[in-house]
């Protein structure tokens, strides 16, 4: 094998997989679930999240600090998709007004308290059989077997209903979150300290827009990526944070230009 040939083979495999994913989406007549951000959508093979598929998301830390971010990510994406959402809870700690703040209003959500992790998966699989739903969301803790994730993926493919599995853990890098899964994408989202309201006075206290570190950990037919984005607003839209937005101006950039020296008059 010539040096670098395996890299070329891997690239060709990714291209083929992405083409098959796009064809599968076209066969189901489903437009991708767009983030509305060109940089993020371009990193996904279909130009967005594939509908009729299983996607995983987890927080980047303990539930109290980051766990809500994964739920808000799913809610914000679903805000611009018509139809009802089945939301399966393992714990009764959801806060519907927070979902409404990112565009997913209470009149669109049907909540089911499943109590046990295994029951969450059973209710999700049953919900995925109903083609009239926009999405089935499940909050799940503990280990997820490859067989269980494959059952959810196959159920989503048959009905065309999208599934979000929100993985919950009190650890930042829980090993169970790295185990193989049939999910098409796997995301990790965590909160980031907001910028000061006055950029040229960073010592000024204040609360800027909520920021997330959005990480695409795994993508079938794609590669891992990471972005800093503003959290979804009430219309279910977010904004990519400009790379240079919080950097100080170049030294002397705000100083007036020095006057030209006067010429001597003969």
Note the main attributes of this structure:
Rossmann fold, alpha/beta, 9-stranded mixed beta sheet, single chain, 6 helices, 266 residues, globular
The top level CATH class name: Alpha Beta
Low-pLDDT segments, ≥5 res: 24-29, 243-266
For the residues shown, what is the average pLDDT? 79
Query: What gap, in angstroms, lies between the N and C termini?
Result: 80 Å
Biggest pleated sheet: 9 strands, mixed
CATH topology: Rossmann fold
Number of distinct beta strands: 9
User: What is the molecular shape?
Assistant: globular
What is the succession of H and E elements? HHEHEHEHEHEEEEE
Named at the architecture level, the CATH assignment is 3-Layer(aba) Sandwich
Rg, Å, rounded:
23 Å
Our count of domains comes out at 1
CATH superfamily: P-loop containing nucleotide triphosphate hydrolases
Physical arrangement of strands within the biggest beta sheet? 3-2-4-5-1-6-7-8-9
Description of the molecule:
- The chain has 266 residues and is α/β, with parallel strands linked by helices.
- It has one domain (10-240): P-loop containing nucleotide triphosphate hydrolases (Rossmann fold, 3-Layer(aba) Sandwich), CATH 3.40.50.300.
- It has six helices and nine strands.
- The chain has helices spanning 5-27, 38-42, 63-78, 96-101, 117-127, 146-159, and strands at 54-59, 84-89, 109-113, 133-141, 162-168, 185-192, 211-219, 225-230, 239-240.
- The longest helix is centred in the N-terminal third of the chain and has 23 residues, at 5-27.
- The protein is globular, with a radius of gyration of 23 Å.
